[in-house]
Specification:
With 356 residues, this protein is of the alpha+beta class. The chain has eight helices and eleven strands.
Length: 356
C-alpha cells in the first residue's frame, strides 16, 4: 500500500502536466533544435550523432543549462538483443523534459571496402514516424547452428563469437533520436523503450548531472574514437558501455541501481568488447600526469628565472643607488669647491681694497 502511494505521488506531477497540456494550459517547450519538439509535432526527430552535435548542440549556449537527470540502459528482448541508452534531460526552467536515445548500428557491409566509405546517415534532421526507422541498420546477429542454440552450449557459442574475425568491419551508424516527453512525438520513443528491457539506470542528484552540451560532446568523441563497427569489438554493446561508464566516472554522485546486470550479452553469452573506458582512463591519467610533470617543471623553471630576474633587478637597483650616491657626493664636492673659490676671491678683493 505504501509502495503504491509512493508510485502514485511520483507520477502525479507528470499526470498534472499532461492534463494541463490537454487543456491547452501547459507552457510550450523551449525551441531548442536537437532536444525539444513542439507539443503539436507528431513525429520525433533523428540524426547522426555528428550532425546533431555540430549543428544543434555545440554552439547553442542554452544547452549548457539543460541537465541530464537520468540515464537508462535498455536491451531488446529478441533477435540481436540490441542495446541503447535513453537520456532524460531537463529544460533550463525545469518544466520540460527531453527524451534522447543514443545507439550504434553497422553501416553497409562490404569486406573489400574501406569501412570509412560506408553509407553514412543523412545530412538532415528528418522526422521518422515508425519505431523500426529509429533502429540502426544492419544490426548483426552472430550465426550459430541449431544445435548450438537448442542445447546448453554456452561454451561453444562463446568460442564461436571469439573466433569471429574482427577484421570484418563496417562504418558505424551512430544515431540519436529526440522528442519532448509527454508530447505526441515522444510516444513512439516511449514505446520503443517499453518493448525493451531496462537493465540498469544511472540517476544524478539535482544540479550534478552532465549538461546536454557535455553529453553531446562525449557521444561525439566516443563515436569518432571508434568510427568502425566490428561484431567482436566495437558494436552497440561497446558503445553503450563506454558512454555509460564514462558518465558514471566523470560525474560524482551518480547512483546506479543495478551494479551487476546483463548488459553486453547475447543469449547469456558475454560479447567481447574493446576495453575503451579503462584504456582511455589510463591514457588520460598518464597524459594528465605527464602534463602535471610538465607544469611542475615549467613552474620550477619559471621560479628559477623569476629569482634570477629579481637578483638582477636588485643588483641593478643597488648599482643605481650607488651611482646616485656618488653623483650626490660629486655635486656636494663641486659646490664646496665653488664656495671656497668664492670665499678666496672675496678675501683677495678685501686685501686689495685695504692696500689702496
Amino acid at each position: 500500500m505504501v509502495l503504491n502511494k509512493r508510485i502514485m505521488f511520483k507520477k502525479l506531477p507528470r499526470f498534472l502536466q499532461r492534463l494541463l497540456r490537454m487543456l491547452g494550459m501547459a507552457p510550450e517547450p523551449p525551441k531548442f533544435d536537437g532536444l525539444f519538439t513542439a507539443y503539436g509535432q507528431r513525429a520525433f526527430l533523428t540524426s547522426s550523432i555528428e550532425l546533431w552535435y555540430r549543428k544543434c548542440i555545440r554552439d547553442n549556449p542554452f544547452t549548457l543549462d539543460c541537465l541530464v537527470i537520468k540515464i537508462s540502459w535498455y536491451k531488446k528482448q529478441n533477435g540481436v538483443e540490441h542495446e541503447f541508452l535513453r537520456f532524460d534531460i531537463l529544460s533550463p526552467d525545469r518544466v520540460h523534459t527531453s527524451i534522447v536515445i543514443a545507439e550504434r548500428g553497422g553501416g553497409v557491409r562490404n569486406q573489400n571496402r574501406d569501412p570509412s566509405d560506408a553509407t553514412r546517415p543523412t545530412d538532415t534532421i528528418a522526422p521518422l514516424d515508425t519505431a523500426g526507422a529509429v533502429t540502426p541498420p544492419d544490426a548483426v546477429t552472430p550465426s550459430f547452428s541449431p544445435q548450438d542454440v537448442a542445447g546448453d552450449s554456452t561454451a561453444r557459442r562463446s568460442a564461436h563469437i571469439s573466433s569471429m574475425s574482427s577484421s570484418f568491419q563496417r562504418g558505424a551508424h551512430d544515431l540519436i533520436s529526440y522528442a519532448t516527453l509527454d508530447s505526441s512525438a515522444s510516444a513512439e520513443l516511449e514505446r520503443k523503450c517499453k518493448k525493451a528491457a531496462r537493465i540498469c539506470t544511472l540517476t544524478f542528484p539535482e544540479g550534478v548531472g552532465p549538461s546536454a552540451n557535455q553529453l553531446a560532446t562525449l557521444l561525439y568523441v566516443t563515436s569518432k574514437h571508434e568510427p568502425k563497427y566490428t561484431i567482436t569489438n566495437t558494436q552497440c554493446y561497446w558503445f553503450v558501455d563506454t558512454v555509460f561508464e564514462a558518465l558514471k566516472s566523470l560525474f560524482a554522485g551518480a547512483q546506479q541501481d543495478i551494479p551487476n546486470h546483463r548488459g553486453g550479452t547475447w543469449n547469456r553469452v558475454r560479447i567481447p568488447t574493446k576495453g575503451s573506458v579503462d584504456e582511455k582512463h589510463r591514457a588520460e591519467q598518464q597524459q594528465e600526469e605527464e602534463r602535471q610533470r610538465e607544469r611542475e617543471q615549467r613552474q620550477a623553471a619559471e621560479e628559477v628565472a623569476k629569482r634570477e630576474r629579481e637578483k638582477r633587478q636588485a643588483a641593478e637597483e643597488r648599482a643605481r643607488e650607488m651611482e646616485e650616491e656618488r653623483e650626490k657626493e660629486r655635486q656636494a664636492a663641486e659646490e664646496e669647491i665653488a664656495q671656497l673659490r668664492r670665499e678666496l676671491e672675496a678675501s683677495r678683493a678685501g686685501a686689495t681694497a685695504q692696500q689702496v
